[in-house]
Amino acid sequence: MSANELQLLKLRAQEVRTLMIEREEHIRRNPLDFAARLTLSSMRSHLDDLNRQTILLEAEEARGLIDFRLIGNQVTNGTIRLGLLAKLAAPLADVLTAAAHRFRYPDDDKPGSWNLVSGMLDLRLASLGTGSTRLYLTGNATTDLTGQSLFDVSMKQLFALLNADQDSFFDSLHAMGPRAARAAETLLKAMEAEDVAAELMWTSQSAQPFYWEGRTDRITQLRAMLEQTEERQTETLEIQGAISLLSDTTRLEIREDGKTKATKIRYRKDQLPLIADLTVGQRVVLEVEKTSFYDKSEQRLIEQFRLGGISSR
User: Fold this and answer.
1) Which distant-in-sequence residues (6+ apart) come within 8 Å of 240 by Cβ?
2) By C-alpha distance, which of 97, 86, 98, 96 is closest to 194?
3) Residues of the chain by 3-state class (helix, strand, coil), percent to 5
4) Are 249 and 175 contacting, i.e. CB atoms less than 8 angstroms apart?
5) 115 and 237 share one domain
6) Residue 180: is it exposed, middle or buried by C-beta count within 10 angstroms (0-12/13-18/19+)?
7) C-beta separation of 164 from 172 below 8 A
8) Judgement on whether residues 213 and 75 belong to the same structural domain of the protein
9) Measured between alpha carbons, how far is 141 from 66 in angstroms, rounded to an integer?
10) How many domains does the chain have?
11) Domain range holding 8?
């Protein structure tokens, strides 16, 4: 939707408000004019519809609009049972909030931080649409002083998990953290139990479209992968070597002494100043948090790393 169309919507809404003021004044002078009262009621409904359209279009322009299409016998003609809506909306909000919190804060238990992140994301059900049933959800996609958006980051992590294959699954799991992963498992279990398939669509700040086709077989597969994964332990250790990759997408790689394969290490948003002066090829000693995942289906351990600090450079 173009900016011109959005402007036309706003102008139309203003015209309706002006007509409503005139109609209200007429009713004050003619309180028994029931036709005028019916017209005013119709105008209010029309204004509500224009306001809803405006909210959706503004969210779409700001890259804060999520189109969540549900497919199944329980979600038809733009309707959904309240119980099912709660089962899906709550864990979806938990996934995004937990992923954003992990990206923003080093401490999961920092007092007040969860409410702060939830408020920053400002996730809302903005409207219901037809075509099976579409949930139009909005979030606050505003960027901060570093040019990053918590909403953008958490949505990308959600899509990374939903579209993950065997090779990228544990990387996406570690990026969003255990709390977000458990919430994703809860969401998928609810969809599986209620026999609901889905399509999820969103466009990022960089205008990149993201899409997930949540067929029932994919939902079952991904739920099983999450269920078969156990986070074993997290320990802190030091690794040393030469920086082989630096990325502004919260990842760096180091080629450890005595190893041929580079170790991938994630870092938090608030650690950007810490790595700002690092260069490729520079030798460093890093303090990292190593998390081990156990894949029950293949009986193997997978290690993921997160930056704690820089011991020496």
Assistant:
1) 256, 257, 283, 284, 285, 286
2) 86
3) 45, 30, 25
4) no
5) no
6) buried
7) yes
8) yes
9) 11
10) 3
11) 3-61
**Beta carbons within 8 Å of 22's beta carbon, 6+ residues apart:** none
User: Count of residues for the chain?
Assistant: 313
CA pair distance 232, 224, nearest whole angstrom: 18
How do residues 147-191 score in pLDDT, each as one tens digit? 789 999 999 999 999 999 988 899 899 889 899 999 999 999 999
Distance from C-alpha of 105 to C-alpha of 121, rounded to nearest angstrom: 15
Q: Select from 227, 252, 267 the last residue of a domain.
A: 227
- DSSP code, position 262: P
Residue 215, both tokens: 């067929």
Q: C-alpha distances in angstroms, 299 versus 100, 177, 182, 200, 292?
A: 30, 21, 20, 32, 13
| Each residue's pLDDT tens digit, 251-299 | 899 999 888 889 999 888 778 888 888 899 999 999 999 999 999 888 8
Could you list the beta-strand ranges (E) of 79-227: 124-129, 133-138, 197-203, 209-214
